Amino acid sequence: MFKKIFFFLFLGSWLLTKIAYCQDFNKKQQTADSLFAVGKYHEAETLYAQILNEGIFSEQNILKQAFVASQQKNYVAYLHYLNLHLQYKPSLRTAQKIYNIATAYELEGYEVSDSKWLLLLYYAYHKWLVWGFCLLLLLWVFIFLRRKYHSWGVFQRNGIFLLIVLAFGIFFINFMPNINEAIVAYDHTYLMKAPSAASNKVAVLSKGKKLSVVAENDVWLEVIWQKEKAFVRKTQVYFHPLF
Fold first, then answer.
1. pTM to 2 decimals?
2. What is the share, in percent, of the chain residues with pLDDT greater than 90?
3. Alpha helices in the chain (DSSP H)
4. What are the beta bridge partners of residue 222?
5. How many domains does the structure of the chain reveal?
């Protein structure tokens, strides 16, 4: 009896929390859109940033933040939001725009190679690819079972084929290279050898430098700099992981 009461109380509190969160999000989104519509870009951008920091991604919000950054002539933030949009929805036009801005400010590392383009496409549409892979696998299993093979050789060949397909599936789902990136927001940003202010300094970066993010470590990001691991404070970079 008490278990049932506890379960329903837990379920009710969870639903109420979800409803309150959705209402808060909708109110915040509507307020931000209203402020943006009347030209109060700074106030709107603050709310859009709060939404983004909560891990809620919207193509329209990202584009609006990019627009505000361009209006404020903050080219680093502009590059960050355009880069986010490129990851969210890969587009050659967006990639070219990012490259043109980076070139104008003499920034390196913003070129999109063929391999990175394929990774962008994979991560942007990987959910559909995974669902398609699962459906094809189920279809193959269904057809195989319907035909009722009795030869051991047929089972062996199909078993090997299934293992190969599953191995490729596991690799593509779990071991694809990470494409999360951070862009240095301020001049004189320190890269450290370890996630500590007392650690040895690796380099001093100027704003606009782009870093590949390996992992998050409390208030630090583990990044790759000149093919070596280093650490930078989250407060010193623009970073919103999409994947």
1. 0.78
2. 49
3. 2-37, 41-53, 59-71, 75-88, 92-104, 114-147, 152-174
4. 215, 231
5. 3
Instruction: Give the model's confidence band at 6: pLDDT under 50 very low, under 70 low, under 90 confident, else very high.
Output: low
Residues 74 and 147 in one domain: no
Q: In this structure, are 59 and 77 located in the same domain?
A: yes
Residue with tokens 């009710």: 12
Residue 109 lies in a domain: no
Residues 82 and 152 in one domain: no
At residue 16 the predicted structure's pLDDT band, cuts being 50, 70 and 90, is very low
- Distance between CA 218 and CA 215 in Å, rounded? 10
Write out pLDDT tens, residues 182-199: 999 999 999 999 999 899
Question: Which CATH number is 189's domain given?
Answer: 2.30.30.40
Domain that holds residue 128: 114-174
3-state SS class at 23: helix
CA 111 centroid distance within chain: 18
- CA-CA-CA-CA torsion sign (43, 209, 87, 67): positive
